[in-house]
Amino acid sequence: MTTTLISPGAASAAPGAALAAPARGAKSEGARVLRAGFIPLVDASVLIAAAEFGFAAREGLALDLVRDVSWANVRDRLAFRQFDIAHMLSPMPVASMLGLGSNPSPTITPFSLGRGGNAITLSTRLFARMRDAGAPEGADALAHARVLRRVLDGMRDAGEAPPTFGMTYPFSSHNYEFRYWLAAGGIDPDLDVKLVVVPPPLTSDALAAGAIDGFCVGAPWNMVASERGVGRIVAAKQDIWPSAPEKVIGMRPDWAESHPETVSRLLVALDAAARWCDRGENHDELAALLAQPNYIAAPVDIIRRVLAGEFSLDDTGERRVIPDYFTFHGGFANYPRPSHALWTYSQMLRWGQAEWSPALAEKALSAYRPDLYRAALGTGPADADLRAEGTSFGDRFMDGFTFDPQAIPDYVAAFPVRYERVAGSFSDDA
Predict the structure, then answer these.
(1) Which of 274, 299, 351, 425 has the most CB atoms at less than 10 Å from its CB?
(2) N-to-C CA span, the chain
(3) Helices vs. strands in the chain: H and E counts, helices first
(4) Residue 307 domain flag
(5) Phi, psi of 332 (to 5 degrees)
(6) Single residue among 243, 264, 288 that ends a domain in this structure
(7) Does 310 fall in a domain?
(8) 430 in any annotated domain
(9) Which residue, 209, 243, 277, sits at the end of a domain?
(10) Which residues does UniProt assign to the signal peptide (predicted)?
(11) Of 96, 79, 90, nearest in space to 112 by CA
(12) 18 located within any domain
């Protein structure tokens, strides 16, 4: 089934679309203090650097950063106006505009905080069973998923309980990437394993305690687990889909509409901070800042190696290097691409979190605001906002699928592993 969606320009007529950079000579909103919530992760680097290295101050802004403990807290505190802006999971604005979750307050994003940073880590106990089941040395992410399928089959035949895996939030890139990896190996994430929510800083301890058998989370917590000797990294975000959207800056559309100049100045500051974070010569200084107790509170040497994409896969010395594990600015990594919002919506459909309709697809699109990005920065990528994903060399999905944003129901229905009622939720007259 093919459904024609509105163009990104027309999408700008969705809620809050009147936002734009202020005209020259417009009345200034003056210096502002913005309260911003964040979770202790390396992908908060751009926001933290903007606050600490003067990029916000140059634009007449002060960022009051508040370290929070969970994504649900961040969502609620933004909704209840305790935060002006927030470090958020890329699916959170989409979920909010679709009315999903326990407190779906409208949220938009005009700026992505970059690409990369996630990985999947399994307990050393579970990985040892995969070795016994024939996992070869140097196996890639897909091979690991297929071997795990064999281990799960054996556990089921022996009457063992399925493993419990942690992810950070139901509407998160971690949830969708973990599910994508499992499903690519023939594992049904709703039937063959148990998925639970674990806040990022607690994942390593939960793995060590045996409360979970694996997790998908952002840096540096995967490498913290591997270097403690409690986990083995089996897949990185780049293995699943290199361009998968990650963290964004979220804000309420009514706040953005009433502070258009502040939004523009904020994006200019974040853009400059992202450029700075991308430069390798700045990574020592960035790592030292992130390691502080008020930010990530993790060993500085681990953060520095994560920034370089240098992984300790476990505590035996086996290593892997992913040169672009983090991209903070290059290749328009900060652009809120509408096709990414629709891919996120497709995963919500695939796993039974949402129903299909063209109207809901438009709501998903309204969460991402490239018009605000272009108005503030005067630039943007040359290719279409609604483009096919997974078609270019170096940016393919691990299972070989491609995503056409104009044929979302067909895309979801083609997956052999998906939520069992998804197929029945689509109709030709939707």
Answers:
(1) 274
(2) 10
(3) 19, 14
(4) no
(5) 55, 45
(6) 243
(7) no
(8) no
(9) 243
(10) 1-20
(11) 90
(12) yes
Q: In terms of Cα–Cα distance, which of 68, 149, 92 is closest to 336?
A: 92
Inform me whether the pLDDT recorded for 422 exceeds 60: no
Q: Output the DSSP codes for 371-393.
A: HHHHHHHS---SS-SS--BS-ST
Number of domains in the chain: 2
CA distance 408 to 418: 14
Task: Find all residues with CB under 8 Å of 401, minimum gap 6, and list them.
Answer: 390, 411, 414, 415
Range of the domain at 358: 8-116+245-296+327-425
How much is the average pLDDT of 172-193? 98
Same domain? 253 vs 229: no
Instruction: Tell me which DSSP letter residue 177 carries.
Output: H
- Name the residue with tokens 């992984």: 311
Per-residue pLDDT of 246-265, as tens digits, reads 999 999 999 999 999 999 99
pLDDT tens-digit map of 58-110: 999 999 999 999 999 999 999 999 999 999 999 999 999 999 998 889 999 99
Same-domain check for residues 95 and 233: no
Question: Does an H or E element contain 122, and which?
Answer: strand 118-123
The letter for the amino acid at 47 is L
Identify whether residues 259 and 392 lie together within a single domain.
yes
Burial 154-193 (b: 16+ CB within 10 A, else e): ebeeeeeeebbbbbbbbbbbbbbbbbbbbbbbbbbbbebb
* pLDDT per residue as tens digits for the range 280-307: 999 999 999 999 999 999 999 999 999 9
Question: Residue 8 — φ and ψ, nearest 5°?
Answer: -55, -30
**The two three-digit tokens of residue 209, written as one number:** 């305690």
Residue 24's CB: how many other CB atoms inside 10 A? 5
205: domain CATH number is: 3.40.190.10
Round to whole Å and give the CA distance between 63 and 47.
8
* CA torsion, ordered 3, 254, 18, 99, to nearest 10 deg: 10
Identify whether residues 182 and 220 lie together within a single domain: yes
Both 111 and 213 in one domain: the answer is no
